[in-house]
Write a structure and sequence with these properties.
With about 475 residues, the chain is mostly helical. The chain contains 15 helices and eleven strands. The protein folds into two domains: about 200 residues, Glycosyltransferase (Alpha/alpha barrel); about 170 residues, no CATH class. The structure holds 1-deoxynojirimycin (2 copies).
Length: about 475
């Protein structure tokens, strides 16, 4: 009898033990099936971190984790990216209750962001990276300022403004987002970006002060789209000023091309912070294109320098992480090869992250879409490696013409490659569909901040672009 009891509890233990809920749980189902299962879970887990109990309305927890690591703060960058996903889903939502739920979240975020803008802080401006969850300033030492934050927030809210304009709600745009007083939310961010983009700041990883490709890209988008919005709202002088700043920025973004390494380097003019990023390869370059490019425009997805860099990043992470050679599809992507932040401390080894891996998937979907609107793919010395890796043709032709079979094959291969990154994510999430920040490079188990809000947003964004 005893033995049977033991056996029963052993079997139950196995069923509910974390090993069965861990990586590989979803290996038996297809990507489509998994997406159908995972998408609502990701939305639910993401929403749970917004206006969470014990926090001010409209604040976005980076993660509910309060210790080891303490991510119980509102980061301007994470919040802006998470809210862009909400805006996109608000825009396309057909269900009235869902739409009004998203609207409420967005209005709360707008209020909280106004509070952030007007709260004195140690950055002395809008570049303050994070706030306490009650909206008060965080006064500990930190990498300051981080100038991608106000630009990302502007991008998200300009997108919302355009949605509202399309819905005939110009009065809301003027009331909540943009009016001629320099104190309106979006205009304040645009004024800050337009007057500070030449300065150095810390990057999205909060470790290095200099001029960064990612920061510049999100600033560029804010100025371009901000100029367009200002024009639509009858503020032509501001529009012209933002536009001119964007034009001045283009050569600065070009300057990130390193002709001998043949990559876009993430940081120039380093002034402070880490000094061991030897390879100068960084997934933040690809994220900069995702968060900051204007499709079919200046240095967007199909640019050959961008493609050379994306290929170099993938190759580096493929070699670096043992789990990338465990027979599972797709490549798990980290922040940068020399990373020492393991999710708890900086004295360890860096790992792949969910948000970068999902981000690479999104990159391929959006590249495929951009190429569909072109008449040909021209092969250059810079993109040859990228395309021959995709087509397995060692000697590709000088150009692929739209409509040809090879062209269609490339588009298909790109979408398929995007899927490989999502299959990677699918393999490493736990059995409840939860996502932390990182994936251990050797064991493949999740680690770092649990339920990282940005991980969910990055996956949802990739799924939406799929
Ligand atoms: C927390 C930061 O957010 C992360 O990017 C960094 O790597 C670690 N601290 C170590 O500085
Ligand atoms: C560390 C990451 O490096 C940074 O990008 C992020 O903003 C914070 N964690 C909060 O998620």
């Amino acid at each position: 009898m005893r033995q049977i009891q033991h056996l029963v509890s052993f079997v139950f233990g196995l069923l509910f033990s974390s090993t069965l809920l861990a990586q590989g749980t979803f290996s038996v189902i297809s990507l489509e099936e998994w997406i159908a299962y995972e998408e609502p879970i990701a939305i639910k887990n993401l929403l749970r971190n917004i206006s969470a109990s014990g926090t001010a309305k409209g604040s976005v927890l980076a993660s509910p984790s309060k210790s080891n690591p303490d991510y119980f703060y509102h980061w301007v960058r994470d919040a802006g990216l998470v809210m862009e996903e909400i805006v996109a889903r608000y825009q396309t939502s057909f269900s009235a209750p869902t739409k009004s739920q998203y609207l409420e979240v967005l209005l709360d975020y707008i209020e909280f962001s106004k509070l952030n803008q007007s709260t004195p802080n140690l950055s002395g401006g809008l570049g303050e990276p994070k706030f306490n969850v009650d909206g008060s300033a965080f006064n500990g030492s930190w990498g300051r300022p981080q100038d991608d934050g106000p630009a990302i927030r502007a991008n998200t809210l300009i997108r919302l403004a355009n949605v509202w304009l399309a819905e005939g709600k110009e009065d809301w745009v003027r009331q909540y987002l943009y009016n001629f007083s320099n104190s309106s939310l979006v205009k304040q961010d645009l004024e800050y970006v337009s007057k500070n983009w030449r300065n150095t700041s810390f990057e999205l990883w909060e470790e290095l002060k200099g001029h960064h490709f990612h920061t510049r890209r999100v600033q560029y988008r804010a100025l371009r789209e901000g100029a367009e919005l200002a024009n639509r709202l009858g503020d032509p002088k501001a529009a012209q000023w933002y536009w001119m700043q964007a034009m001045d920025m283009e050569p600065e973004i070009d300057r990130h091309w390193n002709a001998s390494k043949k990559i876009l380097v993430s940081t120039l003019d380093r002034e402070d912070g880490l000094d061991y990023k030897w390879s100068e390869l960084d997934a933040s370059v690809a994220l900069g294109v995702l968060h900051g490019c204007i499709e079919n425009d200046f240095m967007s997805f199909s640019n050959d320098k961008v493609l050379a860099t994306v290929k170099a990043i993938e190759d580096a992470f493929y070699r670096l992480y043992p789990i990338n050679r465990n027979g599972q599809p797709g490549i798990a992507i980290g922040r940068y090869p020399e990373d020492r932040y393991n999710g708890y401390s900086s004295g360890g080894e860096g790992n792949p992250w969910f948000l970068t891996t999902a981000g690479f998937g999104e990159f391929y979907y959006r590249l495929a879409k951009e190429l569909e609107s072109k008449s040909e793919i021209r092969i250059t010395s810079l993109n040859r490696g990228f395309y021959s890796g995709l087509t397995h043709k060692r000697e590709p032709p000088a150009s692929y013409k739209k409509g040809s079979e090879d062209y269609l094959r490339i588009i298909k291969a790109l979408r398929n490659k995007g899927d490989q990154f999502l299959i990677r994510v699918k393999y490493h999430v736990d059995g409840t569909g939860a996502m932390s920040e990182q994936i251990n490079r050797e064991s493949g188990y999740m680690q770092g901040a649990r339920d990282l809000t940005w991980s969910y947003a990055a996956l949802l964004s990739a799924i939406r672009h799929r």
